[in-house]
Amino acid sequence: MDRLTPIRLWPAFLSVFITLMLWFAVPNPSGVTPEAWHLLALFIGTIAAIIGKALPIGAIAIIAIMLVAMTGVTNPGKPSAALNDALSGFSNQLIWLIGLSIMLSQSLLKTGLGARIGYGFIALFGKRTLGIAWALTLAETLIAPVTPSNTARGGGIIHPVMRAIAESLGSQPGNSENGSTGRYLALVNYNINPISSAMFITATAPNPLIVSFLTKGTDGVLNMTWGMWAIAALLPAVVSLVLMPLIIWWLYPPAITRTPDAPQFARQKLESLGPLALAEKITLAVFALLLCLWAGIPALIMGSGWTVNPTSAALIGLSILLISGVLSWDDILKCRGAWDTVVWFAALVMMAEFLSKLGLVSWLAVSVGNTIDHLGVHWGVATLLLVLLYVYSHYFFASTTAHITAMFAAFFAAGLGLGAPPALLGLMLAFSSSLMMSLTHYGTGTAPIIFGSGYVTLAEWWKTGLVMSVVNLTVWGIVGAVWWHWLGYW
């Protein structure tokens, strides 16, 4: 007899309790409609269930969609309209862009191209430990635009390469003599992930959600394209990626600094992979095509009539991989991460959009803005306070998606109300949404994988995360602000 899938009772009880208390025991504040307040109760209960992992996030999303439809909070007295509202998230193009991109990224794993890229950089730059660190950095950055699952990228593709290199150097977890080399590489392996996730809209799943918030928060004025995002992130990301291995070296230097055998080990791994297969060549060509389409190169060369919607471009790429046989339909059906992401994104985006439509986000923004406004500070100081509060509240979240969905729109609206330039504020909050992953060993899905390898203690991880958060925020706040001003974004 099949076993029942267990629900985690205490997190489930807590999320239900929070929802019911907000719905029935806490009156809606002045300026907030009952429908908006009730939707907020469902929303906070959903976030609590996600944080507590009462059920898998996709299952929680389905329950949330059902509750929105059955309670009719978005359209009281109109069950059919309420159901349409509850399902509206599935028509969002950005959600499908991420789902399709995750499907596309399966070709990196299936063909072995991801591992080949990683070992290729080690073979070129791996004579020193610092060179290995930068090789891992280059490898992850190269595949970031086409791997919207930062967990698959940092934990599934780069981490096995990192572990193989560490073990080839005799560095085992807990080894007092050489273990520090593995510790250094593991910390580098993880801290690439937040930076690479910030670099491209398609580098981590919540980024398209942020684009949606920025567009809606400015009534379409701040409409970030894939190319605009990538250009905005380029300079501060390069500075962060260059500094990060050096900062971690300063914090926790490796015992082994010269690694003359690492390039040979990497070449042996490449030899075992054999020559570049046809499937890998097709995958490379598809990803090159996607980068051209997402960056808008055809439109730049041929005119605006050649502009290709990013989601349409992803469909083109996936279709080529299916037609060529690089991926099969069974591969797509087995891509649980993609389907899971589409479902839970649809629920969270739908709830966030209707919270905005019902006026809750604007009310919350005014409340936060008034609190900071009473301090009588300049908009620059107010922006800094908002960003710091937004970033370091991530200590209370085990999901960047839950954090972004819960707080981004309100903090962006609050900053606008305090006079911050929309692009400057929006870009700082957008990029901080990825950079804050560095803080804890549970901050995003990549963290438990690398932390679980045993090279890094909890204290070492948290210390590195705090230091890197300060470094990254400083780089992106100063270098980024100057770069964006030079680009004419603000």
UniProtKB/TrEMBL annotation:
Species of origin: Citrobacter enshiensis
Descriptive protein name: DASS family sodium-coupled anion symporter
Entry keyword annotation includes Transmembrane: yes
Membrane topology (UniProt): Multi-pass membrane protein
Family label: Belongs to the SLC13A/DASS transporter (TC 2.A.47) family. DIT1 subfamily.
Domain of life, per lineage: Bacteria
Signal peptide location: none
Keyword terms of this UniProt record: Membrane, Transmembrane, Transmembrane helix
Localisation per UniProt entry: Membrane
Residue ranges of the TM segments: 7-24, 36-52, 226-252, 273-301, 313-330, 342-365, 377-397, 409-433, 439-458, 465-486
